Amino acid sequence: MIGTSSNARVRQILILTCLCIIFLLSLIIMGLVGVHGKITFRSFTKGCVLYMSDDGQVISYNNGYCLFPIIAGAVIAVLSLIFILYLSMVIHRNDEFSPRSLSFLFFILSTLLALLAFAITAEIGIGLNKGCKLLGDQSDRCRATKSFKELWVAEICAGIAGGLWVIIMLLELFQIKSHPRGLMTSTADHVGQTTVVPHRADDQHHHRSVSLNNPYRTHPTNAAPSTAIAMDHGHKEEYTGP
Question: Compositional bias (Polar residues) spans (predicted)?
Answer without folding.
Answer: 210-225
